Amino acid sequence: MVLEEPSNALEILEAGASGVLPRNATVSDLLLAIDAVLHGFAILPRAVQWPDSTPHQPSPSLRNHVLTARELEVLRLLAEGASNKLIARTLGISFHTAKFHVASIAAKLDATGRTDAVAQAVRLGLIML
Description:
Shape: elongated
Order of helices and strands: EHEHHHHHH
Structural class: mainly alpha
Strand order of the largest sheet: 1-2
Radius of gyration: 16 Å
Number of helices: 7
Number of strands: 2
Strand content: under 5%
Helix content: 40-55%
Largest sheet: 2 strands, parallel
């Protein structure tokens, strides 16, 4: 999301955006922001502070939704209907590690299961179907 005024940047993140950049962001800033979002970080303009005034600390509702890069890979495979066994094989990890990632994703998204995790991720804008 690119904003003219960053005053409502936190509200936009709370609504599900992964990042907010000022309108004057350079191409380099945009590319770095995309890479950071792909690695599970939330992006805010420098002028905006997190609610607790500690830089780089998302609010509790955002913190719960931050997935690691590997969890995002697993989530994309979940969205394609992959089983834990297929996820493990595709990513070159053990079945137990794949199962752990799925459980971690469900917990972070406050989901009741695999399908609900994908639905929550779509609602939050973490993945697109």
